[in-house]
Sequence to fold (198 residues):
Amino acid sequence: MTKEQFQTLLRFFKVMGDESRLKIVGILANQECSVEELAALLQLKEPTVSHHLSKLKQLNLVTMRPEGNTHLYQLDNQALSTISRDVFVPEKIASLVVDIDKKAWESKVLRTYLVEEEKTVTNHNHKQHLKDIPASRKKRLVILKWLVNKFEVGVKYPESTVDEILKHYYPDSTIIKEELIANNLMQRERESMIYWRT
Fold:
């Protein structure tokens, strides 16, 4: 999403975040109205309606045409369609979070479920281990992705080596192996019991 589109989206929500303006848009979607008519329909004062219309005009959401001494307002369907097409699509909405740290939640999960080990001669290469397997599938996947990184891509491991590596992080390697396979993070050749990262 461009900076200009982001500003348009921001203005849109600021302008539309008002009950009276939403009602005006709803009325003008069905018919042309003067300020006087809108004021009567919404039970508002005419200067208040004019203020709301000026905000809607800033987004080009309403058009105005003179008729004698009266100005008639109508919703600009084309402008609404343009905003919808240019801004209100999943890809554009998703791009709003470009400056968000997408790894922050994963880091939080890891901090919750990993504990530091006391350094000894035998475990100086494995400073962290799992204190538990999360019940939540999404959190469990974060842990599994962290664990699968303990294996090299393109290397085939016998089951005994897989067990040995996993037991450094969690005592029940069988559960972890099955989870890694179930989540397509590792593959297993059943006859030879050889494992590898996908």
